[in-house]
Specification:
Length: 244
């Protein structure tokens, strides 16, 4: 791969981690700031215990099973008998646990957005906890079905991950960091950034250009530039209105 192609695979996951709603939910659930910092340090070092073995197993699979599909490389080592039974069982159990916890986290957080950011905010009357729970359950089911349908249009799990992570990263990460570190950011700038980043990513993927360069290389600059420009323009307009 060229350096640009490598960057195209690095940025989606990097941006996702920086702005992942699941991460912020876990940190917000900490007892205090010190606990949140300690858990972040534990997450950072613990990730090496997961990612390094996976990289080693995938590299071994590329030699032992050169014709294997990339997204089944690690699991195939266990299925084809290249690992001891106990190790293979641990690999399969770990992969299953990872799929379940990742899927449930994203389903619950997405359904939470539907319940609190859409349903509860725009409902005519304050919904009861029982009704919120019912809407939340239906949202989980609906999002799961939609995700399954969308997944049928991608040739591999890797392609689906890169696409989903890119949309999430370029649309959310710049806005989140602007809210935290740039006081001049405005709601109009953040919304414009999200929309343009998503449209650029979808258009790039639809045009089939991701085979050469992943969409994040193009959509991330679009997201950042639009956020800054629109925020500066709308910020000046707000100051002028306030002065009047």
């Amino acid at each position: 791969m060229t350096p640009l192609q490598l960057l195209g695979y690095f940025l989606p996951l990097f941006l996702l981690i920086l702005a992942d709603q699941n991460m912020y939910q876990r940190l917000a659930a900490a007892r205090d700031a010190g606990t949140a910092r300690s858990s972040t340090a534990g997450f950072f070092f613990g990730s090496f215990l997961v990612t390094v073995p996976v990289a080693l197993l995938a590299s071994a699979s590329s030699f032992l099973l050169p014709d294997i599909e990339p997204d089944t490389a690690v699991l195939s080592l266990a299925a084809e008998g290249y690992t001891p039974a106990v190790v293979g069982g641990l690999i399969l159990a770990g992969a299953f646990a990872f799929i379940v916890t990742t899927g449930s986290s994203f389903l619950l957080s997405s359904a939470g957005n539907v319940v609190y950011d859409l349903y509860a905010r725009f409902a005519r009357t304050e919904p009861s906890d029982r009704r919120r729970l019912g809407v939340h359950r239906l949202s989980v089911l609906g999002i799961a079905v939609l995700a399954y349908v969308l997944g049928q249009f991608f040739p591999s799990v890797l392609a689906l991950q890169v696409y989903a992570y890119t949309v999430y990263g370029v649309a959310i990460a710049p806005a989140v960091f602007a809210v935290l570190f740039w006081p001049r950011a405005t709601a109009a700038g953040a919304l414009t950034s999200m929309v343009l980043a998503t449209v650029t990513t979808v258009g790039w993927e639809t045009a089939g250009l991701s085979s050469d360069v992943n969409a994040v290389i193009v959509s991330l600059p679009v997201s950042v530039v639009s956020l800054v420009v629109v925020s500066l323009l709308t910020g000046r307009r707000s100051v002028a209105v306030a002065a009047r």
